[in-house]
């Protein structure tokens, strides 16, 4: 019997077995040969591809972006510009998310600040953080900017 079992591939790549099965199901990872007992058996190419997929996902690329990147790996007729453009698009998306996270950080800092000023140490139900979270009015950080 040759090849690696799914658990061995999972261990080598840091990917859990349900995720490996999912990647097979959606066509990101080719379905492996099966041997006695209908067990999956993977070769080195599958380990390399799964490592590539895992790294793409670790960098936050979507499944469809990973699909595009894996197809680029296999097609010498396609240009590196495609990978660059996809990475640039992803970088733009990451920068938008970072901006949103900075705004979220300011809002949460406003929660903490308003609690320190208004009610820290008082009864939990009277906490301004809870009031702000349950309110339709702008939160403290937004009120300060207005």
UniProtKB/TrEMBL annotation:
Keyword annotations for this protein, in alphabetical order, are: DNA-binding, Transcription, Transcription regulation
Which stretches make up the HTH merR-type domain? 3-72
Q: Which Pfam families match?
A: MerR_1
Q: List the PROSITE patterns hit by this protein, alphabetically.
A: HTH_MERR_2
Q: Which InterPro entries match?
A: DNA-bd_dom_put_sf (IPR009061), MerR-type_HTH_dom (IPR000551), MerR_fam (IPR047057)
Single annotated GO MF: DNA-binding transcription factor activity
Q: What is this protein called?
A: HTH-type transcriptional regulator hmrR
> Taxonomic classification, please?
Bacteria, Pseudomonadati, Pseudomonadota, Alphaproteobacteria, Hyphomicrobiales
Q: Which gene encodes it?
A: hmrR
């Amino acid at each position: 019997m040759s090849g690696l079992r799914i658990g061995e591939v999972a261990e080598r790549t840091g990917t859990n077995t349900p995720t490996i099965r999912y990647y097979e199901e959606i066509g990101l990872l080719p379905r492996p040969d099966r041997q006695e007992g209908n067990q999956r058996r993977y070769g080195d190419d599958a380990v390399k591809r799964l490592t590539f997929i895992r790294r793409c996902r670790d960098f936050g690329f979507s499944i469809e972006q990973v699909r595009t990147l894996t197809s680029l790996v296999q097609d010498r007729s396609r240009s590196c510009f495609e990978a660059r453009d996809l990475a640039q698009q992803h970088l733009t998306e990451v920068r938008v998310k970072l901006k949103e996270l900075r705004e979220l950080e300011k809002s949460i800092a406003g929660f903490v600040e308003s609690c320190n000023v208004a009610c820290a140490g008082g009864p939990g139900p009277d906490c301004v953080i809870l009031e702000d979270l349950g309110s339709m009015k702008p939160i403290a950080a937004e009120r300060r900017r207005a």
